[in-house]
Write a structure and sequence with these properties.
By secondary structure, this protein is mainly beta. It folds into two domains: about 120 residues, no CATH class; about 260 residues. Helices cover about 10% and strands about 30% of the residues. The chain contains three helices and 36 strands. It has a twelve-stranded parallel beta sheet, with no helix packed on it. The chain is globular.
Length: about 450
């Protein structure tokens, strides 16, 4: 006897229903340790680091990993949006092991790491691993690292405070960190596909405060709203140093809305002819040797201040540019526009070697530099390169009265905003004091 189509469909539905019930009962009887995944195990998850945790799963303050070297990086899945939260304690919490980031190098999503903003956990996270270790080391993958407030993370006394050498083609960024007293570099940035944004950093009193290296790739450091200084002249280290090969030209570093100084040997020290750094809306305060030293440079709305001589009664340069005789290209052009130079020597050559060497040798050419609407006062040297005359920009603080040996704390408190009747209104840096810069931190 043949079944009707309705009877066959009813039988099929009955069998399917029994199968589904059986599968449901089987799944509910399986323990999670057997490999079955509960819905709640899918991210995003928030993991925790705290000295007060029991160092188990890292999934709460109670079970938090209790040191930086106890983080189980394989548990954190950036693809599903997992993040890592650091306990800053009530006032501060000190970690003695380095934060060695082990984010996935193949993930398109950067690892998000931040200091907690919760009450009782929103103090300062201090990383003090000793002078043989790197405080924060990013050698693989991409990261978004945020102290969550000014100096929310403080790296002290390491070999390198922050070292970023990961070369994956995914952007990272680092924000709200203070770094000091490191024996090699406060911040070290290696060549990369993307420029590394460093914002709202306070970097001071390190062997070299910031080192950015390049090899012709478009990466390097990109500084915004940072204060770089030395609190004592005994440190005698540079603010930002550029190292690299004579490979294809690159900008290597961009610095905007920053204060470089006081207390530095060189504010910016570019050691390679292949790089042309850019400074925009920056305040440079009284380096003992050079506020800017480079082969070529782009300065836009920069304010540079120097006493007549440095504290050792020696001349120092508000800007020093060098003529390159090797590498590619032989000499890149410079630009100095809508900037103010008060004091110091203008050390810019009149000529540069011809970019097209021949035999017999081609005569030198004019040093390639473009200037526009600059103001200078009490400068010496090749001053007509910057501007035709001397004009007092008339800062709010009468800086012309300062002696050569002005203490660094006094230099930190100067106000370089322009008086309403200043002949330089509309030029110079929008950042006019250390206090103003720090008040702009988010």
């Amino acid at each position: 006897m043949k079944r009707s189509p309705d009877q066959r469909n009813t039988t099929i539905r009955s069998v399917c229903s029994k199968i589904l019930v059986s599968l449901t009962l089987l799944a509910s009887s399986m323990p999670l340790s057997s490999g079955a995944l509960a819905t709640s195990d899918f991210g995003p998850h928030r993991y925790f680091v705290s000295k007060n945790g029991d160092n188990t799963t890292g999934r709460s303050w109670a079970t938090a990993w209790n040191e930086m070297d106890q983080i189980r990086w394989t548990s954190i899945n950036t693809m599903q949006g997992d993040s890592l939260t650091i306990d800053g304690g009530v006032g501060r919490m000190i970690y003695r092991k380095p934060l060695s980031v082990q984010a996935s190098p193949s993930s398109y999503y950067p690892l998000r790491v931040a200091v907690s903003t919760e009450t009782q956990h929103n103090g300062q996270a201090v990383i003090a691993p000793g002078s043989d270790a790197i405080g924060i080391n990013v050698s693989t993958g991409a990261i978004q690292l945020n102290g969550s407030k000014r100096s929310g993370i403080f790296v002290y006394g390491a070999k390198r405070g922050i070292s970023v050498t990961a070369s994956v083609p995914y952007p990272s960024n680092i924000k709200n960190i203070e770094v000091s007293h490191c024996t090699e570099a406060g911040v070290f940035v290696g060549p990369s596909y993307y420029p590394l944004p460093l914002s709202q950093l306070i970097v001071h009193d390190n062997a070299t405060n910031i080192v950015s290296t390049h090899n012709g790739t478009p990466g390097g450091a990109s500084l915004s709203k940072c204060w770089i200084y030395n609190s004592t002249a005994k440190i005698n280290s540079d603010g930002v140093r550029l190292d690299g090969t004579t490979a294809a030209p690159s900008n290597a570093i961009a610095i905007s809305n920053c204060v470089l100084g006081p207390g530095l040997r060189d504010g910016l020290n570019n050691t390679t002819a292949a790089a042309t750094p850019t400074l925009t809306n920056c305040l440079l305060i009284n380096a003992s040797r050079n506020n800017v030293s480079s082969y070529s440079v782009n300065l836009q709305n920069v304010t540079s201040f120097m006493t007549r001589l440095n504290a050792s009664q020696m001349s120092h340069n508000c800007i020093k540019l060098q003529a390159s005789t090797s590498g590619y290209p032989y000499q890149r052009g410079s630009n100095v526009k809508q900037s103010i130079a008060f004091g110091g020597q203008v050390n810019i050559p009149l000529t540069a070697p011809s970019p097209y060497p021949t035999y017999p040798p081609t005569p030198p050419v004019a040093f390639p530099i473009t200037v526009e609407k600059n103001t200078q006062f009490r400068t010496t040297g090749n001053t007509t390169v910057l501007a035709p005359t001397m004009v007092n920009p008339q800062f709010v603080t009468p800086v012309g009265l300062l002696p050569n040996q002005t203490p660094i704390p006094i230099l930190m408190g100067l106000d370089f905003s322009l008086r309403p009747d200043s002949p330089a209104v509309g030029t110079g840096s929008a950042v006019t004091s250390v206090k103003q810069l720090l008040s702009s931190f988010e």
